[in-house]
Amino acid sequence: MASRSGDVTMNHLVQAAPLRAQITSIVQAAGSSPEEAHKVAANLVMANLSGHDSHGVGMAPRYIDAVLEGGLQPNTGIKVLLDTGPMLSLDGQRGYGQITGEQAMLMGIERAKQFGVCTFALGHSHHLGRIGHFAEMAVAQGLVSMHFVNVLSRPVVAPFGGGDGRFGTNPCCIGIPMGSAPPFVLDYATSRVAQGKMRVAYNKGEAVPQDWLIDEHGHPTTNPGVVVVPQSNGLFGALRTFGDHKGFGMAIACELLGGALTGGGTWHRPADNQRAVLNGMLTVLIDPVRLGTQDAFEQEAAAFVAWLRESPPAPGSQGVLLAGEPERQARVLRERDGIEIDEATWQEIQESARKVGAKI
Fold first, then answer.
1. What Cα–Cα distance (Å) separates residue 299 from each residue in 177, 180, 257, 306?
2. What is the phi/psi pair of residue 237, to 5°?
3. How many CB atoms lie within 10 A of CB 321?
4. For the residues 88-99, what does the mean pLDDT come to?
């Protein structure tokens, strides 16, 4: 496997437990309490275990840079701006999204259990990480959840018909409990691929499909580096939205709901070099029990999934997989075999430890 420099890339295979300990040490050395550092590290490692390396420990170096720049505030929880019972407006105060997101979800889950539904707006949170984590929190309590998220950072996604980046990867996530069966957890970026996956591909020296990216001139390219490092003219390329105009429409919806409606803000200014990544998230939680459809819901969901699984596998396919299944499969394998981290990412993690004086 070629690296960015053309040399052979050395991959590090690390078990989850020591990796959690290492990232905990780095985050704590950057100013977080032991409890906060452990929660952030556990969340990042879980993303790796789930097969989403883009949202895993490779984000830690950027977090540390954001703390040192002042854009990420350790030991900062949510602030309640409005509480009407089933509706909440919350400010993340630039705290770790792994912390503020969980705090918001715990409040939302409690209210959904009480009122049958809860809608909360979370603005000004630092990077929330894998949004599927919050859907998993909801479905574990028997709740349906819907999440619309925007991203305030360097704009890396081009509008359909546009030739440069104008907004973020703006994820959407839907979690649906399935009774005694594993839950349905749909978690996707509205870009064709997450920005973090381009960082991983660039660090590994890998090319990507041509329809994923445009270069700094607006032309298709297979080089993930166009959205990771400045190009010869100092500009960046951009990701494309999935599904052309359909994904573009969904990305706009996430920007308006996750950014404008939450009060967290939308992106409409030139890019800067700041390392902070701010998210806004609009979340809707529904309790099927309080809605009065729980029995029919479970029966119909089970019948529909069974119907889907009766479809014969397409040529070259292993058959029908539902959202959430690949992540659960990855966790079993990576807990057993370890998490593979490329050399470039590993060196970035080591450098972040040196910046804050962490011994790992």
1. 12, 11, 32, 11
2. -85, -160
3. 12
4. 98
232 — pLDDT class (breaks 50, 70, 90): confident
Asked if 153 and 272 sit in the same domain, the reply is yes
**Residues 1 and 132 both lie in one domain:** no
**Residue 239: pLDDT above 70?**
yes
The one-letter amino acid code at 269 reads: R
Q: pLDDT band at 2, cuts 50/70/90?
A: very low
Residue 296 belongs to a domain: yes
The sheet carrying 220-221 orders its strands as 220-221, 213-214, 238-239
Q: Which ranges of 255-342 would DSSP assign to H, the alpha helix?
A: 288-291, 294-309, 325-337
* 150 and 48 within one domain: no
Q: What does the alpha-carbon distance between residue 160 and residue 30 come to, in Å, rounded to a whole number?
A: 40
Q: Based on the domain organization, do 178 and 44 belong to the same domain?
A: no
**Dmax (CA) of the chain:** 61
* Residue with more model confidence, 357 or 196: 357
In a domain, 168, yes or no: yes
CA gap 189, 75 in Å, rounded: 28
* Residue carrying the six token digits 């902070």: 276
Task: Say what the alpha-carbon torsion angle 28, 135, 93, 81 is, to the nearest 10 degrees.
Answer: -140
Section 123-147 average pLDDT:
98
Radius of gyration of the chain (CA): 20
Residues pairing with 117 in the sheet: 286
Amino acid at 103: Q
Q: Is 197 contained in some domain? A: no
Does 338 lie in the same domain as 255?
no
In the numeric block, which tokens belong to residue 25? Answer: 């040490």
Is the whole-model pTM more than 0.90? yes
Is the pLDDT at 7 greater than 60? The verdict is no
- Please give the mean pLDDT across all residues of the chain: 95
